[in-house]
Every structure is written in structure tokens, then in C-alpha cells.
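dumping this here before i forget
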Amino acid sequence: MKEENVILVDENDKQIGTMPKMEAHEKALLHRAFSVFIMNDKGETMLQQRAADKYHSPLLWTNTCCSHQRVGESNIEAGKRRLQEEMGFVAELDELISFVYKAPFDNGLTEHEFDHVMIGNFDGVPDINPTEVADWQWMKPEAVRNDIEKHPELYTAWFKIIFERFYDHISKKSLS
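structure:
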């Protein structure tokens, strides 16, 4: 399988080039990414546990899905595509916020992303792709926040950043 390219961007999210995904992570170059949060009608967030053979953050809990946009693909199109690929369903998505973060990993790779956070609603059971996802669960945002405080080592770096910085946005969406 051919390695996907990521879209390199500047601090204003303007595309400045493309690069193979692993090379961008090895060089810690800023690139476009997205994180999808799916909520149900009970105000719970769908979390996924990353598959055991992921190249970083294996078996850690995180938001419903995340990945990188392809050239010519909108944030929403990318989010819907990856939601289908990882979780086996599609939902309408709204872009909530975006931010830049940088997180080095023990394996020498670094996530340096201009992350677009999207939110959607779904009340069914996902049909997870086992090469991407080990497990999934619904949790109330306040329960997630409490568990991150008690067990931060169980969660991905970007998920902890999103929850710390944007908890109010996510918890308000869980109430609407």
C-alpha cells in the first residue's frame, strides 16, 4: 500500500506543499490534520482505543477518529471519509475549532499539526475496522475529563490537549 502524503501548512493553515506522512512526522513539520468527536443524544462522546499495531500511541484512548486531509479534500469530506474507514459509519459533521499543537513521541516521531476539530451526532453501534481500532465506548465529557486526570497515560497526546483547551465547547455540544 502506498504511503499517504500529508499537506504541509504554515501557521495560518495555508498549504505550502505535501510530504509522505512518515517523513513529516520524522521531521516534525507542521501539517494539516483533523479530529472528529461523535456525540449521541445522551450527551456522551464516542471514544476509540487505537489498534495495537498503530505506529504511535497504540492502544491509547482518543476521540472518535482522526487523520489527515488529502489534497483537494475539505475538512468535512476528510472527516466523513475517515469516520467511515475507522468506525464504519458516516455522520453529518460541523467544524468546531482549530488549533496547532506539537507532541513528540518516544519512537522519535512528532505530531506537529494544524488540527481541525469537528463534531457530529450518531446514536448507533459502530462497525469498527480492527486494523485501526481495538475497542470503543461512550463516555460523558465530564467522566472523560475525570479519567484523564486520574490516568493520563491511557489517552493520546492530542486528545488530552483538545480536552484541556476545548472542554467547554465539547461539553456545551453534549448538552445541545
